[in-house]
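anyone seen this seq b4? input:
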Amino acid sequence: MLVDDAAGAAALTGYFRRHADIAVQHQCGVILETPTWRASQDWGSRLGYSAAELRRANEAAVSLLCQLRAGYQGAASSPVVVSGCIGPRADGYHPDERMGADEAQAYHAGQIGTLAGTDVDLVHAMTISYAAEAVGITRAAAEAGLPATISFTTETDGRLPDGSSLAEAVTTVDAATGRSPVYYGVNCAHPAHFAAALPGGATGARIRSIRANASRKSHAELDESPDLDTGNPAELARDYLRLRAQHPAITIVGGCCGTDVRHVQAIADAFAPHTRGGLSAGCDEAGFVGDHDGLGAVAEGELGQDALDVGFGGLAGDA
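predicted toks r here
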């Protein structure tokens, strides 16, 4: 557990700081995603964590990022948002055991309740593979008084692992929650997989975040790969520019599996000449988020122009 270990905490701090410095360089805000993607009940139990220990781990992850945020308070052009990262209950690639919305709400309420007692500004559920779990997470966040964002993952055909389209997933969650999510995103897939599947119109405008894999490999191929495929940072940045040109509602861009500070730097360098007001950076692997007037903008569900969102996934810091 990296946040429990001095060396691990130092490594995480350095990781996040390298990305936050890119935001300062580009005079943009930064979103820091807590290393809590696998810090929920079932996954904690696998590591022998009691409920109290798991609660402390979530709190420690938030504390680490809040301490880092304090070091950037003097950078007025780079506001820092701390986001509580939530992962799926099951394998995000293979949702063989699916929950109904009520069960999902009950399961995720524990971790979200813990995060609500900290200084996070919102929660972000990532690599979600079916709508019912997203509905439960959204309802649990609303009950805890936290804004929520939902990022779905897709297969190479642009559909969620359960076979539904992005448009179907977004409209289902919005209908069940009164459009409660602040925005939606796509993560853990390459732009080549989902670019053609991004919906247009009002539904498409709800998708504002992209955090793609560096690799063009499928989820199955990534699971079997003995080596980390880091792709091409410059190529990924160009892919993002094309996505943004076709879908101007996308104001949050970043990275997932295989990305690192090189990809974030390339994305920031590519976007800077094409945007006003800068970017916003975070830490779970890389990304942009809307250009914030302040942290209250997220709490109110309002984002500005562009931003960088980066984070680090996993209970023990595994990306």
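The beta strands are 30-33, 80-86, 122-128, 148-152, 184-187, 207-212, 252-255, 283-284, 286-287, 307-312. Residues 2-312 form a domain with the TIM Barrel fold (CATH 3.20.20.330). kinda curious what u guys think
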